[in-house]
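> example.struct
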């Protein structure tokens, strides 16, 4: 499992934390992005492909302008389809497969 995964999204550094669902939010959720804290949380209570798709989902939230109308509806439709295309064509490599953490320096 990733210990130190960092992503740069739109020039901002985000730390990715893989956590149990109960630690992500009070209610069950697959993941979240906290723009102010620069943190993305991904639930480990789901299979790896689902975690990877959730990470992509949260990255898309990070890319979209905050004022995007119906953002969640768009991301819910777009993320799984994009993940499917990337995975089917061998263009997605799960961060969970890498033994080394990403560091920003």
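> example.seq
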């Amino acid at each position: 499992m990733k210990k130190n995964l960092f992503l740069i999204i739109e020039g901002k550094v985000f730390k990715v934390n893989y956590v149990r669902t109960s630690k992500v939010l009070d209610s069950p959720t697959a993941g979240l992005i906290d723009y102010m804290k620069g943190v993305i949380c991904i639930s480990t209570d789901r299979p790896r492909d689902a975690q990877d798709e959730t990470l992509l989902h949260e990255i898309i939230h990070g890319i979209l302008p905050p004022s995007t109308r119906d953002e969640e509806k768009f991301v819910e439709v777009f993320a799984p389809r994009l993940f499917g295309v990337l995975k089917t064509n061998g263009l997605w490599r799960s961060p969970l497969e890498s033994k080394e953490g990403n560091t920003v320096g």
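> remarks
The chain has a mean pLDDT of 83.
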